[in-house]
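Below is how a single chain appears once it has passed through the pipeline. First comes the sequence as given, then the structure the pipeline wrote out for it. We keep one example in the README because the format questions we get most often are answered faster by looking than by reading.
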Amino acid sequence: ALRGRLAASLGDATAAAADLDQACEVAPDSALVRLLRGLHAVESYERSRGLPGFVVEPGGLRLLPMRAETPEERGCRERGVDDLLRGLAASIVDTPGLEADVARARAMMAIFTGEREGHAEALRLLAGLDDPVALRWRGIAQYHLGRFGDAVAVLSESLRRWPHDAQACRYRALAAHAD
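Resulting structure:
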């Protein structure tokens, strides 16, 4: 599981998925394995959604709607959410050294609820984290709360640190378009 987490942090999604799946086969009841695999699955789902399209019109750019999720993407999202729920339900949430992962997992779950309170809770959970992934999720929560200017600022900082993050780019474009 830790090798999968390392592979994910190095950008090797294929190796991360294989290692985390193998860890789940070896220890199917491990809350830590479920939490780490859930984080990876949700991140992979968001990356697979890609960037929104744009059309150039006489008045400027028009943002195209996102395509519908594929069955594979839906399965990835559902498995990730299920794993996050299993991981968060266990006592590992108080394990020293996992604070950032637990905060990210809780924030992702709050965002996936789609409710305003969930997005506000995600902002609270991510407030102390300063890595590009946490910044991205803070920007996404800001976007869903309708704080488009704040979302653009946070996502711009995330993209400054991690310029090839399609998910942060997508939400920054959506927030800038809505602002």
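The two ends are 41 Å apart (CA to CA).

See the next section for the split statistics.
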